[in-house]
Write a structure and sequence with these properties.
Layout: E1 6-10, H1 11-14, H2 20-34, E2 40-43, H3 45-51, H4 57-69, E3 73-76, E4 89-93, E5 103-107, H5 117-129, E6 134-135, H6 139-146, H7 150-162, E7 166-171, E8 182-185, H8 186-193, H9 195-206, E9 210-211, H10 213-223, H11 245-285
Parallel strand pairs: 7-9
Antiparallel strand pairs: 1-5, 2-4, 3-4, 6-8, 7-8
C-alpha cells in the first residue's frame, strides 16, 4: 500500500492526553481543515460520527465541544437565513500557523481504512516518532505514552502490518542479545525515497526475519541515499559488510552459551561438595 498525499498535523496532538475517541475526532477535523484551501471545513455531526466510528451523534457533538473548549478547534454556528434552522457548523484550527514549525505527517486517506480509534492513535504515535521512516520505541514506552496495554498495542501493530502501513522486524545486537523492535513507516519511506525503494525494502526485509547490525546499517544507508540498491538477502544468509561481524556475532553467542554452562556446572558442583562437607563435619561432631 503506497500513499501519495499527506497532511501536516501538530506533533503535540500525537502526544496529547486526549482519549482515543477525542484524538480520532480531532485528527479527522485537522485533516479535513488542513486539506482545504480555505483552512476551514463545514461538516455535519452525522458525518463526523460515521467517519470516526461513533454510534451516537450527540456523543460526537460532545467530543467536538470538548475539543473547542480545550483550544484545539474554533467553531462557528451557521443558520438558515429563511427558516432559522441550524446548519452544519464551520470549524477552523486554532493557531494554524504553528503547525508549520513542529508537525508530523499522516496519509490524507487514512480514514478510508476505518481503523479503530486506538489503532489510529497508535498510528499517529509511530508516524510522529518515526519522522525519518524508522523508529524503535519499546513496548513499555509506547504503553506509557499512549496509555494502551501491551496486548492492545501488539494487536494493533499486527493490523497495521496487514494493511501495509508499517513493517516490523526484530533486532539482534552484536553481543547476540535482542534490542527493541524496528518499525519502518512505509508512507514516509515512499515519500523520502520513492515507491520503488519501498518495494525493494519489502523484498530485503522478507529475507531478514531478524535484523542485525549490518542489515540495519544497509537499510539506513539506503534510506539516506548514501548507497545503491538494496540487495535481497536469503533467509539462510547473513550480510557481512563490516569485516566479519556476522562471524564474530556467532562466536560471541557460542562463547556466552559455553560460559553459562560452565557457571551452572560450577554452582551445582559447589552445592554438592558443600553438602558433603557438612555431612562429614556433623558426623565428626557426633
Amino acid at each position: 500500500m503506497i500513499f501519495n498525499k499527506y497532511v501536516k498535523l501538530p506533533k503535540k496532538l500525537a502526544f496529547s492526553c486526549l482519549t482515543t475517541l477525542h484524538f480520532t475526532v480531532c485528527c479527522y477535523m485537522y485533516m479535513l481543515i488542513a486539506s482545504s484551501k480555505s483552512k476551514q471545513a463545514t461538516v455535519r455531526l452525522s458525518v463526523i460520527a460515521h467517519k470516526c466510528r461513533i454510534n451516537d451523534k450527540s456523543y460526537a457533538s460532545k467530543i467536538v465541544d470538548d475539543l473547542v473548549e480545550q483550544g484545539f478547534l474554533t467553531k462557528t454556528l451557521r443558520y438558515n437565513q429563511f427558516t432559522g434552522l441550524q446548519l452544519a457548523s464551520t470549524y477552523q484550527i486554532k493557531n494554524y500557523r504553528t503547525i508549520k514549525d513542529d508537525y508530523f505527517i499522516l496519509p490524507s486517506n487514512i480514514f478510508k481504512y476505518r481503523l479503530p480509534s486506538k489503532c489510529l492513535a497508535l498510528t499517529a504515535y509511530l508516524f510522529a516518532k518515526g519522522f525519518t521512516g524508522e523508529t524503535y520505541p519499546s513496548l513499555f514506552d509506547i504503553s506509557r505514552d499512549t496509555g494502551m496495554s501491551k496486548t492492545t498495542i501488539l494487536k494493533h501493530i499486527s493490523l497495521l502490518q496487514e494493511l501495509g502501513i508499517i513493517i516490523k522486524r526484530g533486532y539482534r545486537k552484536l553481543d547476540g542479545s535482542f534490542g527493541h523492535n524496528r518499525y519502518f513507516i512505509i508512507f514516509i519511506l515512499a515519500k523520502r525515497a520513492g515507491n520503488e525503494f519501498v518495494e525493494n525494502l519489502r523484498a530485503f526485509i522478507a529475507g531478514c526475519p531478524v535484523l542485525n547490525v549490518s542489515s540495519l546499517r544497509t537499510i539506513k544507508a539506503a534510506i539516506s541515499g548514501r548507497r545503491g540498491e538494496l540487495t535481497v538477502i536469503l533467509p539462510d544468509e547473513e550480510p557481512n559488510n563490516n569485516g566479519g561481524a556476522s562471524h564474530s556475532t556467532g562466536f560471541f553467542i557460542r562463547l556466552r552459551a559455553l560460559l553459562a554452562a560452565i557457571f551452572t556446572f560450577f554452582i551445582a558442583g559447589r552445592s554438592f561438595f558443600t553438602t558433603l562437607l557438612y555431612d562429614k563435619l556433623y558426623k565428626l561432631i557426633e
